[in-house]
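Researcher: Please predict.
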Amino acid sequence: MRFASLIIVLVAAIVAANSVFVVNEGQTAILLQFGRIVRTGYAPGLHVKLPLIQQVQRFDKRVLTLDSAPERYLTSEKKDVNIDFFVKWRIVDAGKFYVAVAGEEKFAQARVVPIVKEGLRTAINSRTLRELVSGGRADLAKDLVVEANQKTQGMGIEVVDLRIKRIDLPEDGTVIGSVYERMKSERKKVANQLRAEGSETGKTIKADADRQVQVINAEAYRDAQKTSGEGDATASQTYASAYGKDAEFFAFYRSLEAYRDALTVPNGTLVLDSKSEFLHYLQDSK
């Protein structure tokens, strides 16, 4: 009797354990009965189901990452580029996701990658290399996200974002050399322009400095001549005043200065008439 009761309790526990299931945070779930979907969209928490008859399939509803290997594409100029990208996606309809890819993330990624690559190839074929590397990749990514979502509507997923990580030029092509030469030519053009502008500015500064020097020299010469004239005038007034006070002494003093200047010249010879006025003060006082 006890053994039968134990069996009943054990069976009841097994049935009870198979009657409830838990959906964790960040998950969603669908309920299957004989392989057919009977309910979808379970929120996180504790839920019940029919034991042994119904099964639960859980899915990660967080944003997932699909990282693709770099692949070579052709621009509109027929130049090769290697592009490395990744895709952010998530499950939005667990029922459609289960039907489309049997609930397997790897199958979903296997279907999303060709869609993105095809859209990327078409977009790059219509753009030049300059447009790709000069900041146009943001608009390119937006267009690819819209196109990918249109083509994956029946899969129950949503492409949240697509980012191009790197755009590299293939090392075995001639594109790198041509790009470097073009960059070198553009930098040289800018350098020549800057040198020309610098030379023009230097000439302007030098011409202005030369003009200022000439103006300063002219003003200085004018002031010097003015000062010299004023000094000569003052000297003349002083001499005239002194001469007026004692004409005889002034004449004597000026003669002494003339004697000093004339008679102190080394190796000089002075030939004068003995009656010359210059020798007036050297003659006999009589």
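Model: Residues 116 and 148 are 6 Å apart (CA to CA).
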